[in-house]
Each structure stands twice: as C-alpha cells, then as structure tokens.
Prior knowledge:
- Pfam families: Anp1.
- Its EC number is 2.4.1.232.
- Its main location: Golgi.
- GO terms for molecular function: initiation-specific glycolipid 1,6-alpha-mannosyltransferase activity.
- This is Golgi mannosyltransferase complex subunit.
- By secondary structure, the protein is of the alpha/beta class.
- It has one domain (about 85-370): Spore Coat Polysaccharide Biosynthesis Protein SpsA, Chain A (Alpha-Beta Complex).
- It has nine helices and 14 strands.
- A hairpin with a 4-residue loop joins strand 8 (about 240-250) and strand 9 (about 255-260).
Amino acid sequence: MPPVRRNSTITYILAGILCIFFLYFFFGDSTSIPSFPNAPKQLIHSKQAASNALSPPSLPFIKPAKLGPDEVPAPPPVVHYQMNNVTTSSTPIENHETILILTPLARFYQEYWDNLCKLSYPHDLISLGFIIPKGREGNLATQQLQERIQKTQHPSNKDRFASITILRQDTEPITAQAEADRHALTVQKERRAAMSRARNSLLFTTLGPTTSWVLWLDSDIIETPASLIQDLASHNKPVIVPNCFQRYYNKEEEAWMTRPYDFNSWQDSATAQGLAEQMGPDEILLEGYAEMATFRSLMAYMGDPTSDPRAEVDLDGVGGTALLVKAEVHRDGAMFPPFPFYHLIETEGFAKMAHRLGWKSYGLPNYFVYHYNE
C-alpha cells in the first residue's frame, strides 16, 4: 500500500502567495491607467509609464530631476504593449487609431502649419515628427517651428497634439534650393538620396509601438481637406497617395489656375522596364524629365475635379508630398532606399520595396492636395 501524502498548512500558504503574486503581475497595473479619452487600447500602462499615453517607454517627455553626486539614475520603466491590438481600419477615429505625421522640413511655411492645425482628426491621437537640416536656414526653420509649437501646445489649448519631436539632421543637409534648381535632373540622385536618409532617420526614431498610421506630409503642402487623414484611411489601403497639384496665377488668362505638381505617382510601362534593363547597377530612373522618357501612366494627368474623389487606381510608384502608410508596412521593413533599388530611389523605391514585401500601393487621382507656389 503506497504511503498517504498529506498537504501541510505551509504548502497552502505558499500556494496562496504564489497565486497572489501572479495575479498582481498580470493585473496589478490596471488600476494605474490614467484618464485619456482617446487612449490607444494597445497600451497596457505601467505604474511608472510616461504621463502621455503615446510616449515611448524611455520617457522622453519627462525632464529627470538632478541627482546627487552619489546617486544613480533609475532605469527606464517597463511598459507592456499588446501589438496584436494595433488596428488600422477604415474607421480610425472610432477605433482610436494613432497617427504619426512626419515632415522633412527645410523651410517653414506658415500656410503648412495653419493647414496642419486645421486637420479635423482628433489632435490627441496625432503625434508630429520633424527633421530639419543644420545650417543657417535650418536654424531659422527650427526657430519658426518652435515659436508656433509653443502657442499650439500651450496647456490652455485643448486642441494640442499628443506629442511633437524635432530632430536635427546629422547627415547630408536637405538643401533648401529654389524650386527650379531643386528639380534639376543633375541633382536628383544626390538630393533624393539625402531625402531618403532624412526620412529613414525620422521614421525609425519616432515610430512607436502604438502607431497605427504614418502620414508623410511635405512642409510645402499648404492646402488639404481638413478631413485628409479620415479620407485616406477610409480606403483601408497599405499605401495610398492623393494627387498633388499647385495653384498658380496665369497672367495671360488673368485668373488663378491649377497644374499637376507631383509626377512620382505612376503606373509602370514596358518602356521604363526596358530602360531599366539597360542601366548599370548604380543608375536610377526618374520621372517627369524629357531627357528620360518612360511613357509611364502618371496619376498627375488622371485627375478630374468633377469625378469621384474616392476613385482608386493601382500604382507602382508613389510620391511623398502627402502619403498615408499603414505603420505595419514600415514595421515590415519598407523604408526609403537612398540607393538604387531596382533602379528606383526614395519614395518610388519605397513603393517598390513595399510591393516586394507584399504590400500594394494605390492612388486617388481625383482627390487633391496643393503645393506651395514659389
């Protein structure tokens, strides 16, 4: 007959302590969740989490207290994120989806900032990120931006943004050239490679674990519908871009008119593919230049203001003037190649890289945003 094992009182006590410990570990933080009306559901707050629901766990928004000579700074808190709960849907406001708006900024345009502040998406779900070149013009742009931020982010403003990050570029500066010089064919490879590095630095520094969407918005986009974010996200596409035009005054007609501006959103052609096959490994295809006729179908010429603004077209290349990307596309590894990637670079190279990762790009030829006219 086997011996009878009796559970002692101490065994029950230890088991009870263990159960309490595990229950506290998994559920103990739930009472410390601060009150955020639009707090993203994917964030499980720690007792020492940053005061802003969108802050990364390194607490960049809290200035540490001065330490004594023998004091050691406390390590950053552990914050738990449930990445499976990060949603990207056609109803982003209802799902409290966070938006990261990223802008490479070489010059500050007041019209850009005014348009940004007029966006109707809840501002407490929007984080802003800027990267600005070093140098005199970059210093001026930084100063002008900070002056606007101080007003917009003042505690008395109930419509302030969730967070704002400003980076100073530590690689090649984004040269703030005149428009004609900036678009010269001879400078495109160097200029767009520098732009790619700036975009990647900004993206990898600011993309957080609760970010659902990334909106790339150039600093010279001065007019968009106030519902830009909701309109683009409502299509629920991995990569989607509106049509970028420019308003200008026609002296002959004595009237304000519009013209296409961004030629980087296109559908590929057999001619372009043939040109690429004859190129060396370091050569790139560029769009919108008579010296390099690709005969691609450009979305810039598909636009019709009287047609359905929700009409979609498939794209093989995208421009970055106003580009909405699901954050998971970037998390998958799609970035802006500063090198020839299948003979494409920057935003067009990004579309190619996203496609190679299984993500398609789309365009809205009848939905317009407008570029500053120099």
